[in-house]
Amino acid sequence: MRIGLIGGLDRNAPHYEEQARSRGHSVEWHSGIVAGRGSDALAAIVERADLVVIVTEVNSHAGVLAARRIAKERGKQCVLMRKMGAARFKALIDEYGSGVASAFRIVGSSQEPYRPEMRRGAA
């Protein structure tokens, strides 16, 4: 599985790559900065990914919005996480085989995943 990780701390990128590789997956990381050619690189990562994980706390607003828009346009599965450390990333990729919903039971812990259909006032 190819994972596109948008946002988060750049110092964690080697840990994400090692964890993914050790489980037979690959990960591409993007800082979320869309200035200059950043938006082209972000679009390319989303296009290649089987799963797009967007970290919202350490990311630009434009990066989050662009990644979500591109993932939706391309029909890619997208997961929004407020924070993503190495342990949370490991839990996400370990549980992905049984579905993203089950991954949230472990990964989300005290935080709820973003589900647009679950917003207040949504029918």
**What's the CATH class label?**
Alpha Beta
Shape estimate:
globular
CATH superfamily: Phosphotransferase system, mannose-type IIA component
Q: What's the number of domains?
A: 1
Major β-sheet annotation: 4 strands, parallel
Specify the CATH architecture.
3-Layer(aba) Sandwich
Integer average pLDDT? 81
What is Rg? 14 Å
Spatial ordering of strands, largest sheet:
2-1-3-4
Share in β-strands: 15-25%
Number of strands: 4
Structure, described:
This protein has 123 residues and is an alpha/beta fold. The chain has a single domain (2-118), classed as Phosphotransferase system, mannose-type IIA component (Rossmann fold), CATH 3.40.50. The protein is 43% helix and 16% strand. It has five helices and four strands. The protein has helices at 13-22, 38-48, 61-74, 86-95, 100-107, and strands at residues 2-6, 26-30, 51-55, 77-81. The chain has a four-stranded parallel sheet with strand order 2-1-3-4. Strand 3 (51-55), helix 3 (61-74) and strand 4 (77-81) form a beta-alpha-beta unit. Helix 1 (13-22) packs parallel to helix 4, helix 2 packs parallel to helix 3 (61-74) and helix 4 runs antiparallel to helix 5. The longest helix has 14 residues, at 61-74. It is globular, with a radius of gyration of 14 Å. The N and C termini lie far apart (34 Å).
Write a concise synopsis of the structure shown.
The protein contains five helices and four strands; from the N terminus they run βαβαβαβαα.
Any descriptors?
123 residues; alpha/beta; Rossmann fold; four-stranded parallel β-sheet; 5 helices; 16% strand
